[in-house]
Design brief:
The structure is a homodimer of 200-residue chains.
Chain A (H helix, E strand, L loop, with lengths): L1 H6 L9 H16 L6 H8 L6 H4 L3 H25 L4 H17 L3 H9 L6 H27 L7 H14 L12 H12 L5
The first copy, chain A, binds a DNA duplex (30 and 30 nucleotides) through helix 4.
Chain lengths: 200, 200
DNA sequence: TACAATACCAAGCAAGCGCTTGGTTAGTCA
DNA sequence: TGACTAACCAAGCGCTTGCTTGGTATTGTA
């Protein structure tokens, strides 16, 4: 999946200098926030001097944009893949929940957290770019939830439900501990039970 | 309620210079973020020069702390009041949801948003102080949700449910528009239906 | 082996930052 | 009236910030 996107030039190779910089930026932006992270912090993290960053990106904000852009592109693809393997409406909703939780709590977690919490640090142009990518991503959610609503699995309006779920899921980054008792699948089932009325 | 807390010296009078500064800081910190808000921004907002801020607070971080401290104190009191008027477990959960939504989307919304999203800008000491106040606040939630679970209204473990709800509710600040079709009561009922199994 | 293109260094600039200092003004109350 | 205090000004200091510039290694390709 990742290799394919790298080969297509959609995502920067994480082993390249630029790719490693994007990864490091994601971590630092999540941990310290975009504003508190200096270009010197970023450079030190990949072992270069601060001025050398600007060989890879024209300014600091573009690094943030790259982090967000690649995160959303990658996770849109993995959601599509997960949807393709689900057979019922409920399975599709659960698949999306698992996918989003994995993206938030797993390897791309840093970037996803940045995507959610550092939005306002983007300039107008960048916001437009990311927004278009988000729309594609969100449409996958809306389609699945609308289908679930049509089948009577869900009572809340799909786009309201999605927004409530967005908050609930993205907030997990602030409390969920994957070394604790509850594994990610169980967390996903709990989240599913917010959305769907089971008859147990 | 507010007058009482002001009279007791728990909350700064919002009409005093210091109180107006806290209010303005809440708005600016929400809109621009703590880091992006300069002491010059803060001072200009209340019509003084930047240096004069430090007559009221020893440093910028203490302004953030004051914003958070007063927000949580005020809203803990209003939650207690709302709970006192509810008669069943379900009513109590709904009361807390409404209360939290009001605090996020109403007058204290700026401060509550700051409380949720600017946590890491507090230093260690301040985090401890605010954490103690949060514990009191969260215990009100846990008690209500535990009661609901005991009565079979809820299937998820109370402290997991609370955390999912925290995210869902606090995220509303990013999308809910009170001039739109859905009023706050309906939003609260939607949120309640995440938590509680109805037999409708 | 020539030669770009890529990746980086060394040094530092201009602007903005939080905060300090010493002093002034306006209001309160004995 | 005079002592006291809360609120603020005027000026600027020391530091950090994002970013620039001109040059140098390193790498891939023919």
């Amino acid at each position: 999946m990742l290799e394919k996107l790298v080969a297509e030039g959609i995502i920067t190779d994480p082993k390249s200098p630029k790719g490693r910089l994007i990864q490091a930026a994601a971590r630092l932006f999540r941990d310290k926030g975009y504003e508190r992270t200096t270009v010197r912090d970023l450079a030190a993290e990949v072992g270069i001097l601060s001025g050398s960053l600007f060989h890879h990106f024209k300014n600091k904000e573009r690094i943030l944009r790259a982090v967000m852009e690649e995160a959303i592109l990658l996770n849109t693809e993995s959601m599509k893949a997960a949807l393709a393997e689900a057979n019922t409406a409920e399975e599709r909703v659960l698949a999306l929940i698992k996918c989003e939780l994995k993206s938030i709590l797993g390897d791309t977690g840093a970037a996803m957290t940045v995507l959610v919490f550092e939005w306002r640090s983007l300039n107008e142009d960048s916001q437009k770019v990311i927004l278009e990518l988000r729309d594609i991503y969100e449409q996958l959610w809306l389609d699945a939830l609308t289908e679930a609503k049509d089948e009577g699995l869900v009572v809340i309006e799909p786009f309201i439900l999605r927004r409530l779920l967005t908050g609930a899921l993205s907030w997990t980054v602030n409390w969920y501990d994957d070394s604790g008792e509850m594994d990610l699948d169980e967390l996903a089932r709990n989240a599913l039970s917010l959305a769907i009325k089971h008859n147990i």
